[in-house]
Design brief:
11 helices; Glycosyltransferase; 50% helix; mainly alpha
Amino acid sequence: MREAAARFVEQHARPLELAQYRVFFAKGDPNEVVNALLPFQNADGGFGHALEPDNWNPDSTPITTNDALLRLYDAGALDLNSGTAKHIAQYLLSGAEFDAHAMRWRFAVSGNIDHPHAIWWERRGDGIFGWNPTVSLAAFLVCMHAEGPWEALLTEAFDTLAQSGASSGDELTCFMFAWELLTREQIEGIIDGERARTAIIRAIDATVCRDTARYSTEYVTTPSTFFRSADSPFLVESFAPFIQAELETLPARQAPDGGFDISWQWHTDYPEAFAQARNWWRPRVTLDKLRFLTAFPDGV
């Protein structure tokens, strides 16, 4: 099963996902991921160009730039002293798509509608969706020692998480990245690290679908959304039954070609673009499932 998934990624992935695969499974150089991201980066330092295949807006957006940061960190390639990091900070500090009144970066921007996209990338109202991607981007700027209200935003974000939980798995992934980056950089005095970790664990528990029968048939939040390593600081024993349930559903969800498929539609009128996006998504989804399988080779 894992061998077939690996072959699928090797044969069908874009250069970026292939570079990530090599880092995770073939002792690849993390700088390959940095280089593979360059075609998606704009002159302003932000990212666009269908880095996330659901949104073909070529212009820089906060959410796409956040995706780049998460990929760099995941591959061990986020060097805060690098030109890449400084260029990203330059974009974020420009104020582009930052709502100064709400003190949030926009999740969806107006320009998305001019390009093939999934319906969730159409801006509604102010375009803000909870703390995604604000908590990630604020943590990055704090670690870059950039001037601005970023520490206050982090305090507010983690207080909100402790009180109300997360609105989605994607938002919670941003909190996990923020916590891990602050911990890695030994940034203290902004959040209570243990209280924040406990809040993240509680939010994961509330966000993962508890009806495991739906894992193989619906687009629901499963443990592999959060756990692609057995060393996660947020992995606790109570998640074991859900991890085991997902591991048991994966063989039935693997396609004959070895890959895994997406379980969503765009709900917008771009059939040809959606077909191409699906071809880009499948290796990314397959890589995530492969990492999950490898993290728990004997179950839990």
